[in-house]
């Protein structure tokens, strides 16, 4: 799968990407709990997309590294496509 193939509200079997940048993490508190969240921009040869990172995922990545997301998800938030590994997915460092 490639960035150009991503559609909102679908699953991602596997996608390989390069990390372009990562925002500063921010703290959150909700009815589900608390923790940290950060957004990163990732790309492949077909385009860029925003990656949502939660808690320990934030410390795994840095600009310039290659990652592989398995069993992930896509959604549209504020008219912007976002991807993530979700509860059952995994981010691997390549």
Instruction: Please tell me the CATH architecture by its name.
Output: Beta Barrel
Distance between the termini: 16 Å
Q: What do we call the CATH homologous superfamily?
A: Nucleic acid-binding proteins
Determine and state the CATH class.
Mainly Beta
CATH topology category name = OB fold (Dihydrolipoamide Acetyltransferase, E2P)
Assembly type of the chains comes to single chain
As for the number of domains, it is: 1
Q: Number of helical segments?
A: 1
Overall mean pLDDT: 94
Overall structural class, as computed from helix and strand content, comes to: mainly beta
Lateral arrangement of strands in the main beta sheet: 1-3-4-6-5
- The tally of strands reads 7
Order of helices and strands: EEEEHEEE
Provide the gyration radius in Å: 12 Å
Helix content: under 10%
Largest sheet: 5 strands, mixed, barrel
How would you sum up this structure, described in words?
The protein has one helix at 57-60, and strands spanning 11-22, 26-30, 33-44, 47-54, 66-77, 80-84, 90-93. The protein has one domain: Nucleic acid-binding proteins (OB fold (Dihydrolipoamide Acetyltransferase, E2P), Beta Barrel). A hairpin with a 2-residue loop joins strand 2 (26-30) and strand 3. The protein is mostly beta strands. The chain is built from one helix and seven strands, in the order E-E-E-E-H-E-E-E. The longest helix is centred in the middle third of the chain and has 4 residues, at 57-60. Helix content is 4%, strand content 62%. It has a five-stranded mixed beta barrel.
